[in-house]
Amino acid sequence: MTTTGRRLVVEADGGSRGNPGPAGYGALVKDALTGEVLAETAEAIGLATNNVAEYRGLIAGLEAAAALEPSARVEVRMDSKLVVEQMSGRWKIKHPDMRPLAERARVTASTLGSVTYEWIPRARNAHADRLANEAMDAAARGEEWQLTEEKPPAPTWSSATTSPTRTLLLRHGETPLSIEKRFAGTGDIPLTERGLAQARAAARAITGIDAIVSSPLARCRATAAEVAEATGLDVRVEDGFRETDFGAWEGLTFREASERDPEALSAWLADPSAAPPGGESFATAARRVRTALDKLKVRYRHQRVLVVSHVTPIKILVADALGAPLPSLYRMHLDTASLTRIDWYDDGPASLRAFNDTHHLDEPVR
Q1: CA angle 218, 229, 366 (to 5 degrees)
Q2: Annotated catalytic residue: which of 63, 75, 172, 226?
Q3: Distance CA 284, CA 271 (A)
Q4: What is the pLDDT of residue 363?
Q5: What is the pLDDT of residue 262?
Q6: pLDDT at position 2, please?
Q7: Which end of the chain has fewer CB atoms within 10 angstroms, the N or the C?
């Protein structure tokens, strides 16, 4: 399934007054770009544990998102570390009561364009928590929770007042394949002398960063090393920011790929879920890039992070920031050693502040 749908945020919570005890859940769906609340749901579920209530909240939120737009790209935000880690596949599900709930959540998630999970502090999940408590309070009065018409004001661009997590995205320097405009995917291609000089020029232009994160591929690590030497920061490698695997097209020009696999190339240009022979689709690459971004936003929340990466991951992040579909990647151009800046806000919106900036390369390359 492609992941070109609308970007939605699901916030979900559950609680039990006694653990186990009278329990309930709350969930809401927001537009990721504007912050507008699109749906709210809550329900008392009788005697249950906190974990069961939290899973029920997740399921209700995913179902509400699927009802709004089945092709949506959904970011789930919860203050339950257990649910987030289990649904992300990092923790095993040992309790028998959790397994059918987790499976139901996975089945619902599979009907959507994509789903990622992010842990957030309880204070940032207040809306869903309020809905869960409203449902439990209503049950205690012998009533059912009902949606009221009154909603909190929807955030707008001007209300994005939290400090953003700032990403400065640096494409690696020139390589032998970039000179000839050949497909350069997961191969470990070195920088040229000019590419190394470009990396040094970028390093001189970059100031005020708190961390450096790099793709594991050699051309990015060599570029990141120049910035690390200039700033004194360590480089953290994140596999999710590696380039797309172009499979059989690795090292070929566009024309050569067209002559070898004309039908496959036409499909690849038309559908982000189509992959080069033996390679990776843009849709698949987008899922891991988004996961890498989610990890970055948790680890470096409200910091300024340099991400040294490649054409495709940077374009994916730009498309997501703008709410643009994946085919927009074909309409963007990124120079080697260019800088792109995106600010990511906790309350949903993202802001593209600069794109393909090469002013630091205007000086003669040494």
Answers
A1: 80
A2: 172
A3: 12
A4: 53
A5: 94
A6: 38
A7: C
Residue 31 burial by Cβ neighbours in a 10 Å radius (0-12, 13-18, 19+) = buried
- Can 172 be counted among the known catalytic residues? yes
Q: How many CB atoms lie within 10 A of CB 119?
A: 19
Q: What pLDDT shows up at residue 48?
A: 92
Contacts of 78 (CB under 8 A, 6+ apart): 11, 12, 13, 54, 57, 58, 84, 117, 118, 119, 120, 125, 128
The beta-carbon contacts of 354-358 under 8 Å, at least 24 apart in sequence, are 355/318, 356/332
Residue 341 in tokens:
């800046």
How big is the CA angle at 13 (ends 11 and 14), to the nearest 5 degrees?
160
333 has catalytic annotation: no
Q: What is the pLDDT of residue 161?
A: 54
Whether the CB-CB separation of 76 and 118 falls below 8 Å is answered with yes
**Residue 150: predicted pLDDT:** 44
**What separation in angstroms does the CA of 332 have from each of 16, 117, 156, 292?**
49, 28, 27, 21
Measured between alpha carbons, how far is residue 6 from residues 72, 96, 200, 218, 321 in Å?
5, 35, 39, 35, 12
Structural domains of the chain in order of their starting residue, each with its CATH number: 7-154 (3.30.420.10), 165-361 (3.40.50.1240)
Distance between CA 316 and CA 327 in Å, rounded? 10
Q: Which residue has the tokens 């390369």?
A: 361
Single-letter residue type at 62: L
- Residues in Cβ contact with 279 at an 8 Å cutoff, skipping those fewer than 6 apart: 185, 244, 245, 246, 247, 248, 249, 250
Chunk the chain into consecutive blocks of 10 residues (it has 366) and report each block's average pLDDT, rounded to whole numbers: 68 91 94 84 94 95 92 94 94 89 94 93 89 91 75 45 88 95 93 96 94 96 96 95 95 94 92 92 90 88 96 95 90 96 85 94 57
**Per annotation, catalytic residue among 40, 43, 75, 243:** 243
